[in-house]
């Protein structure tokens, strides 16, 4: 319509020049767009007379210099908002049309002015570049063309130049110069010649825009063929490994274009050699080479997905790449290996660490499986990108099933690779490679784990003396610079491997690389420091000094034997003996006694421990004398005070006998001297907490501390008084549990000691055994916390953690309890109540509750423990807690928790059928409370045969069950109906077996209903879901009685309900934990094979309880679908014959200015959905690649006749560039839906009224040669792992956002 109006105005307006001048004053954004449109129509007009043409040229000259150039400066930059952007865009289009009308003179004038502005360095650089881009195609003066090309290339190469101006030059000016035959050669030399190369991103942008000129399809233009230029291929390689996704996309576009061109020509084409790099490929009439590139491009495109399940199936094709790239006859590379390195570098730099690990493992396998020719590029790649990737600690995780301490797969592969690679290197290259490899280990701060496995790999290289003094220095630097703060055990292991490396690979004895004493002295500085500190540090470990002396002695012997120069050997021995003399003859009269005193004090307490252990026997001889007894109490107090004093002065590794003595003393003094005993508890805990990071002495001290604090007599004395000591022990329990969340094994020690001492005491006295178990009741939180113990760790931590043994210990302790024992019975009931309270507390928590969250795991562990205790509970107690179990069933539960609750209910009703009345009450709540949680109780009814197994009068109960389940078979919720039908099928089968006469009237209805369900051919997933739920393990295979076992509870059922793997406790772990043995007659061990062999089902039902229902907004129509029926827009069928525009006008649809361009989309389903979405939101047109798609049945199925109400325009993909330019000259903003480095967030972008939305292809997105024709790219913010949305969904989101903004804008205007 705008074009028609412009043509009508020109036809009736008389003098075009006067019309242009009239439009220009004053010049707003709307007038600027009108000016651009008039100039476009004038430039496209037919031949004119000489006078008319001259007048038009004068008017165009005036408009260009006096209107368009100032407007370009005004629209420079995006800071001025949408109005300024519209002005700038219209001015650019108008200036191009002015140059078309005026020709070379105006182009030369604009070019000179723009060059002067750029030379002056003013703020209008972008406006000058735009002017040059408009003038470049019409320049005819060779000198001026040369100046323009030189300035453009200088701007692209200038690193300090603004990125926006440089991108503008690369994306607009250089392509415009490339369209000028005089400038193309200079642009070629600047981008691909011998001069300095621009940055890869800028060069790729320009090359993509110049692809038609630099990669010609005609055989006559071979002189400008970029494929013959080595720099072109280097730029492509740099682009393939850039971190910017848009650079990678442009590089892949250029590579695919070159491959496509070469395959189509099928001509022999060889690129000139490029020094040692050899990155350029060569072409010929060889299908093998084209097959290589097709596979290569497929792999590079797949790596963009960044999802391991998508990429992993393509990785085997890497092996075929090597087969295609190596010449079997000549044993050399047909393609330079740097092309392969691009793939690995792309994988190494991926954000997905799983993909990085797959890439590293695949690269390390190369030399195990392939006989690759030697290449310098491989060595550089190993020392560069490969070692950078190996610095990630998370790559070294063990595989499931590997024992703790076993070398992870990456560590093993690294050993084999380094050994094989070094052995295959030429002898003269081995030393240089290994030296660079070791020096790389000092160039950054490495974590302990990578250093350990790199050192291990170096140590396993067979002996080859290729490193000299520099190599020894590099190894020393690794020891000194990167190992300071690492964990002591990892540091020690790595140091051993590095020393082994020094012995295997360094040649420090031969004359050519003899090491001087001063270097050896520096290398041994840490060892000598230890010896020098022995006299001044009373607490230095003896083992450390002994090892230092042994190493120094061994060095002295070795040096004396191997030294060829007698005088040199004498000097070396003299210097070492000088150090020893200083060490041995140092004055130690007052500084060396601290260690001796510490040992003496420790030995005193060892003797005292022996006496105190015999003290009860000695005291019995003086029971008649009370004075002796008071003397004993007084002496005990003095000893305890001395023990506290000893703890403050003794080193940490000497306090064990003191702890043992306090264990004997505290029970005797707890009632009379409680404050002193509490002080002993605090001091002991302070010592233990300070040692938590010291591996060597922590565990022995912790065990002694546990024996002291959790001694049966100490616990009993504190519990009987219920005073401050009792509270202090409870506090210590909480601190130990807190410590165990960060230090694996702490809770194991505590719980194992307590369980053994409570249930398996070492004394024979029955009363003592009884008193020991009383402690279990007084401190039952230990068992309660043990049953639910475990933390959710990060992925890089969880591989080294195994906290199952805490829960195993607690569960085996509970298994040993006897329900007939009053103490055991009371204890179990207390545990059950506390566990139910914990479950209720977790349910009320506001913390997010999702699958495999910490809350889910705690609830899962609670119900597992309750299931273990269930057979030991009596009827009275079970009756009291059953209401809480039912209440838990109404909650919002994950699938695994739901199964455990159902199992407990089934077993309870089986054992005590009199509880059925309580069970029926669960179906009597209002529907709002039940929601889909009723599925829990319907699942119980599906095992009704097990429940009634011990019941004699089955018919009345079956009648009740049938009446209950029938009402739920007609529920509006589909999942509820499915569960009800499963229960109905089971109950009805039982009724048929018992021939219940009361149900004969219902027989036809029930059987026809079941038959209809079995044979349903309905739409959607109804039939498939019915089959899934029947095949689900809980209904098809699981038997509540026969499958009751530890393996089912802790391994099989969690696995089948898809709980995280680290929650599965296999039976072998129960068997390996022998601290608490189960009785030989214990039979609840193994699952049935039928259940154990099942795989997780794809059906899962998660309850939604009343707690998840929103409190507001609920009406009686909550569960009823509501369709929007546009009755106001209804039209008689006779109007269907109207043309599309008239039909839309009659319907009163809004005149939207949005054009959706879907020419790149080739799937009818996506096009049909887009057509429907575009019509609903009132887009002005949908552009497709072919109108034939409209006849496709898949298109019509999704469009639901939207194509009859929406204008469709056919623009083929090859015509898109011209179409975009045309629409941009009409004032449209070309918007691409693509992720680029400068793309706008959809939530922050303001759509212009005249917007053109370009959608990319389903697989490739928007081609690189189209992106620089866009005004802006918009991306949709994402939170998940998947890289991109479906193209229809992406388009729908942007169409809606445009519509939303326009609706708000119109409302504000009204």
Automatic annotation (TrEMBL):
This is tRNA (guanosine(18)-2'-O)-methyltransferase TARBP1. S-adenosyl-L-methionine-dependent 2'-O-ribose methyltransferase that catalyzes the formation of 2'-O-methylguanosine at position 18 (Gm18) in a subset of tRNA. Selectively mediates Gm18 methylation of tRNAGln-TTG/CTG and tRNASer-TGA/GCT. Gm18 modification can enhance the stability of modified tRNAs. It comes from the Eukaryota. Residues 1154-1295 form the tRNA/rRNA methyltransferase SpoU type domain. It holds the Pfam family SpoU_methylase. Keywords: Acetylation, Methyltransferase, RNA-binding, S-adenosyl-L-methionine, Transferase. It catalyses: guanosine(18) in tRNA + S-adenosyl-L-methionine = 2'-O-methylguanosine(18) in tRNA + S-adenosyl-L-homocysteine + H(+). One of its GO terms (biological process) is tRNA methylation. The lineage of its organism: Eukaryota, Metazoa, Chordata, Craniata, Vertebrata. The gene is TARBP1.
């Amino acid at each position: 319509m705008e074009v028609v109006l412009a043509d009508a105005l020109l036809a009736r307006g008389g003098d075009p020049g006067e019309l242009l001048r009239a439009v220009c004053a004053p010049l707003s954004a709307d007038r600027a767009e009108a000016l651009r449109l008039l100039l476009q129509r004038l430039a496209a007009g037919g031949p004119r007379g000489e006078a008319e043409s001259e007048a038009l040229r004068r008017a165009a000259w005036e408009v260009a210099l006096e209107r368009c150039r100032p407007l370009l400066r005004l629209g420079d930059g995006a800071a001025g908002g949408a109005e300024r952007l519209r002005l700038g865009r219209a001015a650019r289009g108008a200036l191009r049309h002015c140059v078309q009308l005026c020709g070379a003179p105006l182009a030369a004038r604009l070019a000179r002015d723009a060059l002067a502005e750029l030379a002056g360095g003013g703020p209008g650089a972008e406006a000058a570049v735009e002017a040059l881009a408009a003038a470049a195609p019409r320049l005819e003066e060779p000198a001026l063309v040369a100046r323009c090309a030189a300035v453009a290339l200088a701007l692209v190469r200038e690193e300090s130049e603004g990125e926006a101006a440089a991108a503008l030059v690369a994306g607009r000016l250089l392509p415009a110069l490339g369209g000028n035959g005089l400038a193309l050669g200079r642009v070629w030399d600047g981008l691909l010649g011998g001069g300095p190369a621009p940055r890869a991103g800028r060069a790729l942008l320009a090359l993509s825009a110049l692809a038609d000129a630099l990669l010609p399809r005609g055989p006559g233009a071979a002189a400008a063929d970029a494929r013959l230029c080595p720099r072109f291929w280097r730029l492509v390689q740099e682009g393939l490994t850039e971190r910017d996704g848009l650079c990678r996309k442009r590089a892949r576009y250029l590579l695919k274009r070159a491959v496509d061109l070469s395959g189509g020509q099928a001509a022999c084409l060889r690129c000139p050699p490029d020094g040692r790099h050899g990155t350029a490929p060569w072409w010929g009439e060889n299908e093998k080479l084209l097959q290589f590139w097709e596979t290569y491009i497929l792999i590079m495109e797949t790596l963009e997905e960044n999802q391991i399940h998508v990429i992993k199936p393509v990785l085997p094709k890497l092996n075929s790449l090597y087969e295609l790239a190596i010449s079997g006859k000549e044993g050399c590379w047909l393609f330079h290996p740097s092309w392969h390195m691009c793939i690995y570098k792309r994988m190494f730099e991926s954000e997905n660490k799983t993909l990085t690990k797959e890439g590293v493992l695949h690269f390390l396998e190369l030399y195990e499986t392939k006989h690759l020719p030697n290449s310098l590029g491989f060595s550089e790649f190993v020392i560069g990108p490969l070692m950078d990737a190996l610095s990630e600690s998370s790559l070294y995780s063990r595989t499931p099933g590997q024992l703790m301490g076993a070398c992870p797969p990456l560590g093993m592969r690294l050993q084999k690779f380094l050994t094989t690679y070094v052995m295959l290197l030429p002898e003269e290259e081995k030393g240089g490679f290994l030296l660079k490899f070791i020096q790389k280990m000092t160039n950054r701060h490495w974590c302990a784990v990578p250093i350990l496995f790199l050192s291990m790999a170096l140590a396993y290289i067979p002996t080859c003396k290729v490193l000299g003094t520099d190599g020894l220095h590099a190894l020393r630097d690794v020891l000194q610079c990167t190992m300071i703060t690492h964990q002591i055990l990892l540091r020690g292991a790595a140091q051993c491997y590095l020393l082994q490396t020094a012995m295997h690979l360094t040649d420090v004895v031969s004359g050519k690389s003899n090491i001087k004493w001063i270097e050896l002295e520096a290398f041994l500085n840490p060892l000598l420091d230890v010896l020098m500190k022995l006299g001044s540090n009373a607490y230095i470990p003896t083992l450390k000094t002994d090892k230092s002396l042994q190493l120094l002695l061994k060095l002295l012997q070795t040096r004396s034997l191997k030294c060829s120069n007698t005088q040199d050997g004498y000097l070396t021995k003299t210097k070492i003996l000088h150090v020893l003399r200083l060490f041995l003859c140092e004055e130690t009269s007052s500084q060396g006694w601290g260690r001796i005193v510490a040992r003496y004090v420790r030995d005193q307490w060892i003797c005292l421990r022996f006496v105190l252990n015999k003290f009860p026997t000695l005291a019995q001889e003086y029971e008649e004398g009370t004075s002796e007894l008071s003397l004993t109490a007084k002496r005990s107090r003095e000893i305890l005070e001395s023990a506290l004093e000893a703890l403050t002065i003794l080193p940490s590794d000497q306090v064990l006998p003191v702890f043992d003595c306090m264990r004997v003393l505290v029970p005797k003094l707890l009632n009379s001297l409680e404050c002193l005993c509490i002080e002993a508890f605090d001091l002991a805990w302070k010592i233990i907490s300070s040692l938590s990071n010291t591996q060597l002495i922590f565990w022995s001290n912790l065990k002694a501390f546990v024996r002291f604090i959790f001694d049966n007599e100490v616990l009993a004395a504190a519990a009987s008084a219920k005073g401050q000591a009792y509270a202090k022990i409870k506090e210590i329990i909480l601190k130990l549990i807190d410590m165990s969340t960060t230090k694996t094994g702490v809770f194991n020690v505590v719980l194992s000691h307590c369980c053994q001492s409570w249930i398996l005491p070492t004394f024979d006295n029955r009363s003592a055994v009884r008193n020991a178990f009383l402690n279990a009741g007084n401190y039952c939180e230990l068992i309660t916390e043990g049953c639910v113990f475990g933390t959710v760790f990060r992925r890089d931590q969880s591989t080294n953690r195994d906290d199952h043994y805490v829960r195993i210990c607690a569960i085996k302790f509970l298994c040993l309890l006897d329900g007939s024992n009053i103490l055991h019975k009371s204890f179990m009931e207390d545990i059950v109540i506390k566990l139910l309270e914990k479950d209720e507390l977790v349910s009320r928590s506001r913390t997010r509750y999702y699958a495999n969250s910490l809350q889910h795991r705690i609830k899962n562990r609670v119900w597992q423990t309750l299931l273990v205790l269930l057979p030991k509970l009596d009827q009275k107690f079970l009756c009291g807690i059953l209401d809480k179990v039912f209440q838990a069933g109404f909650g919002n539960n994950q699938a695994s928790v739901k199964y455990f609750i159902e199992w407990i209910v089934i077993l309870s009703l089986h054992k005590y059928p009199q509880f059925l009345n309580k069970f029926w009450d669960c179906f009597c709540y209002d529907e709002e409370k039940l929601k889909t949680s009723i599925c829990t109780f319907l699942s119980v009814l599906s095992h009704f045969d097990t429940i009634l197994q011990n019941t004699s009068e089955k018919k009345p109960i079956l009648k009740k069950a049938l009446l209950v389940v029938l009402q739920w078979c007609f529920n509006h919720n589909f999942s509820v109906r499915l569960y009800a039908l499963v229960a109905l099928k089971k109950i009805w089968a039982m009724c048929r077996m018992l021939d219940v006469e009361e149900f004969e009237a219902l027989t036809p209805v029930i059987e026809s209903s079941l038959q209809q369900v079995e044979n349903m051919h309905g739409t959607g997933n109804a039939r498939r879901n019915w089959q899934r739920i029947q095949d689900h393990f809980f209904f098809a295979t699981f038997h509540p009685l026969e499958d009751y076992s530890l393996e089912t509870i802790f391994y099989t059922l969690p696995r089948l309900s898809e709980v995280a793997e680290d929650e599965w406790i296999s039976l072998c772990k129960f068997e390996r934990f022998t601290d608490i043995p189960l009785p030989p007659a214990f039979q609840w061990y193994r699952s049935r094979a039928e259940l154990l062999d099942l795989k997780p089902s794809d059906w899962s039902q998660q309850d939604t309880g009343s707690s998840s229902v929103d409190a507001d907004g609920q009406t009686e129509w909550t569960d009823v679908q509501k369709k929007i029926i546009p009755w106001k827009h209804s039209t008689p069928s006779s109007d269907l014959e109207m043309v599309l525009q008239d039909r839309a006008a009659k319907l009163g649809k809004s005149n939207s200015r949005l054009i959706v361009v879907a020419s790149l989309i080739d799937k009818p389903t996506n096009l049909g959905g887009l057509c429907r979405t575009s019509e609903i939101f009132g887009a002005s047109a949908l552009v497709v690649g072919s109108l034939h798609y409209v006849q496709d049945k898949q298109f019509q199925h999704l469009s639901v006749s939207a194509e009859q109400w929406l204008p469709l325009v056919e623009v083929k993909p090859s015509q898109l560039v011209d179409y975009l330019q045309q629409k941009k000259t009409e004032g449209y903003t070309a918007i691409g839906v693509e992720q680029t480095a400068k793309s706008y967030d959809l939530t922050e972008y303001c759509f212009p009224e005249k917007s053109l939305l370009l959608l990319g292809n389903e697989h490739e997105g928007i081609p690189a040669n189209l992106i620089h024709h866009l005004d802006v790219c918009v991306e949709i913010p994402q939170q998940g792992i998947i890289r991109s949305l479906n193209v229809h969904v992406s388009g729908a989101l942007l169409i809606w956002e445009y519509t939303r903004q326009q609706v708000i804008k119109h409302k504000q205007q009204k």
